[in-house]
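Mods, move this if it's the wrong board.
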Amino acid sequence: MKTEEKIEPALYIVPTPIGNLDDITLRAIKVLQNADIVACEDTRHTGQLLKLLNIHAKKLESYHEHNEQVKGVLLVNEIKSGKSVALVTDAGTPGISDPGYKIINEAIKNDIKVIPLPGAVAFICALIGSGFPNNRFKFFGFPPQKKGRKTFVRQLLDEESTAIIYESPHKIEKLIDEIIDLNGSDREICIAREISKVYEEFIRCTVIEAKNILSHKPIKGEFVVLLKGKNL
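Not the wrong board. Structure tokens:
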């Protein structure tokens, strides 16, 4: 899209592809093309994405967990001065397990309009593809790295609705062992790997079966883990 179009001063929450480039929406392309500033986790990563989409952004500005406080104020002031800011993450929807919610709160406190665009969210795709009940579910984000991890896993097992988390490939086997140690061997689990990418995979089985399956294959990619709710 090359035609420039003025968009109103606001904070736009813009989902980006989580794998397949076609995950981008026409509306997202329009906003990224016309926003005065695109705030992103990694300017190099977003710059490459925009190049692939043939989007010529006016200005890229870094916004991530290490500069969120300073840049959040700066970006809010830019919107106050009449500029439009599009917030993106490296993949998926900003504000989901990243610092995006902080600048959103800052914008709200300053009476700035926040415009969330619909788009790709890995855990929603995983939930739909899991086959688990989805009338009620709870998303827990990433588990703690160390302190509080056992309590976190116990909370997952005690949840009566479908429980969903993100986990890194380096800790997925550890997570399975932790669930087994807390008497969760027979709980139904769905492990969704590489959602929307070439090697997308769903492993649907019990926790103890998942341990065996994962021990016989390379552990690569991004993981969404879903546990069927207690007594479901």
